[in-house]
């Protein structure tokens, strides 16, 4: 299981499967990863960015 957390996935695939993988709408992935450079990221990194995005105060 630990190995899956370090594998990198394409952002568009994570967005496409966001409901199944993270229980969120694709739009949340868009917001959480808005400033991310590159096109691949680990699942654990995405989970961290989602958590930060959802707990951030709106301006």
As residue ranges, the low-confidence spans are none
Q: How confident overall, as mean pLDDT?
A: 90
Sheet with the most strands, sense and barrel status: 2 strands, antiparallel
- What separation lies between the terminal Cα atoms? 38 Å
Fraction of helical residues: 55-70%
Secondary-structure-based class equals mainly alpha
Number of strands: 2
Report strand %.
Answer: 5-15%
CA radius of gyration = 11 Å
Number of helices: 5
Order of helices and strands: HEHHHEH
* Count of individual domains: 1
Task: Identify the overall geometry.
Answer: globular
Strands across the major sheet, in which order? 1-2
InterPro entries: YqzN_YkzM
Domain YqzN/YkzM: 8-57
Protein name: YqzN/YkzM domain-containing protein
Organism: Alkalihalobacillus trypoxylicola
